[in-house]
Amino acid sequence: MNSSLLTLWGLWDDVYQRCTRLRYIEKGANIFRVVLLRYRGETLVTDDQQVIRNGDLILKIHIHNYYFATLCKGVKDELRLALLLRRHIMQSLPKLASYLESMAQKEEVKGIVGTTMLHKGVQPLGFSISDVPMNWFFRYKRWYLRLLLRIIHPDGKRRVQTWDTEMPLKRVYMSKEMLLQRYGASEHTTLGGSR
């Protein structure tokens, strides 16, 4: 990615951060930003059979695209890009679990939910996947993510052209129970890990 473009994106990202309710899990070290809100959408059933219904409290997760773009600078190989993203998601999930565990509203939160085109390979990490309705909001989000894909991806122009068939917009989600079981402090203590 062009260094000047990356610099401009960084300035815009700072403004965007100040204008939204998104919060960093760990700025400069975690690929997720989050916001606590009421879920609006169809009923979701997670792989561990937990149910997230319209109106339930969730932690909405957003991949910090600018941060990921800085990590990808100079990476030209598509496989390396995918592996880099997967590694950073895996490294970020324990901190996300810790963040949720420390929240005052922890007991009310039903799970984590995000919307992304980067959904391949997330099921082994504990996520469930479903389609999203193509209303005006998701059409706008798809357009925005297509723009980001073109900027970040080493072969972005071609990937955008194959978007509809190979990389549709999907909802990814995980129950609170699954997140804490797989990535929470007690699990990492049991495995001899540390925070």
Categorize the overall geometry: globular
Question: Which class of secondary structure composition applies to the elements?
Answer: alpha+beta
Distance between the termini: 33 Å
What order do the helices and strands follow? HEEEEEHHEEHHHEHH
Low-pLDDT stretches are 188-195
CATH class: Alpha Beta
Q: What's the architecture, going by CATH? A: 3-Layer(aba) Sandwich
- What value does the average pLDDT take? 79
Helix amount: 40-55%
CATH topology: Aminopeptidase
Main-sheet strand order equals: 1-2-5-6-8-7
Protein name: YkoP-like domain-containing protein
Pfam family, one: YkoP
Organism: Brevibacillus brevis
Domain YkoP-like: 4-183
Description:
The protein has one domain: Aminopeptidase, CATH 3.40.630. Helices cover 46% and strands 19% of the residues. It has 195 residues and is an alpha+beta fold. Residues 188-195 have low confidence and may be disordered. The strands form two sheets. The chain has a six-stranded mixed β-sheet. A two-stranded antiparallel ribbon has the order 3-4. Strand 3 and strand 4 (51-52) form a beta hairpin. The chain has eight helices and eight strands; from the N terminus they run αβββββααββαααβαα. The two termini are 33 Å apart. The protein has helices spanning 3-19, 65-72, 78-101, 136-152, 156-161, 163-166, 176-183, 185-190; strands at 23-24, 32-38, 44-45, 51-52, 57-63, 109-116, 128-131, 170-175.
